[in-house]
Amino acid sequence: MGASCCHTPIEPAHDPRLRRALHFALWVNAGMFGVEIVGGLQAASLALWADAIDFLGDALTYAMTLAVLGAGLAARLRVARIKALMMGGLGLAVLAQALMRVGQAAVPEAPVMGAVAGLALLANLTVAWVLYRYRTGDANLQSVWLCSRNDAIGNLAVGAAALGVFGTGTAWPDLGVAALMAILGLSAAHTVWRQADREREAVPRSAHRH
């Protein structure tokens, strides 16, 4: 995540490729939110629901990033912190739901989990590839890269949970993966918040108002 890109830097607000990439990521994530909500309901899988909520959060993240491209530092930092709070809140909500379901969760339908996770992985790998060149940008651009990275990791984990559910006949793998995805969301929220703090400290105080 700390490696730098080899292309010539372009101011994000004036990069039409970035706007196209963010619009593409926004619509892919919004569509996959609907797919995973339906799949999660059909499979009774908390891991799929967690991933669906994550897709929704990511769609909102991309929309907010598009809204502040070219805006002043103060606006960009506010949006970065809002996104950090949103990612953290979703992570806490999923973690709480996983803890509430311990000992009383029905066994999910592993084939449905695996099929939906495979489709979601394909979608997220495509988005991650499109956004890869922007992974070392400011807090807002870093947040969209973290979203796509965490989603791809989460989809692999949901696929592993489907295999675990199929092999054990219990809901524990599903609950475990849901908790893992919640922790990933909390970690990403912390990273984005710290990056926003570093950017705020790196510029003169007078620039914060513009």
From TrEMBL:
Q: Which InterPro entries match?
A: Cation_efflux_TM, Cation_efflux_TMD_sf, CDF/SLC30A
Domain Cation efflux protein transmembrane, by residue range, is 23-188
The record's Gene Ontology cellular component field reads: plasma membrane
Bilayer-spanning residue ranges: 24-49, 55-75, 82-100, 112-132, 152-169, 175-193
Q: How does it sit in the membrane?
A: Multi-pass membrane protein
Taxonomy, superkingdom: Bacteria
Arranged from A to Z, the UniProt key words for this protein are: Ion transport, Membrane, Transmembrane, Transmembrane helix, Transport, Zinc, Zinc transport
Entry's localization field? Membrane
Primary residence: membrane
Annotated Gene Ontology MF terms?
Answer: zinc ion transmembrane transporter activity
Extract the PANTHER family matched here.
Answer: CATION EFFLUX PROTEIN/ ZINC TRANSPORTER (PTHR11562), RE54080P-RELATED (PTHR11562:SF17)
Q: What is this protein called?
A: Cation transporter
Q: What is the lineage of its organism?
A: Bacteria, Pseudomonadati, Pseudomonadota, Betaproteobacteria, Burkholderiales
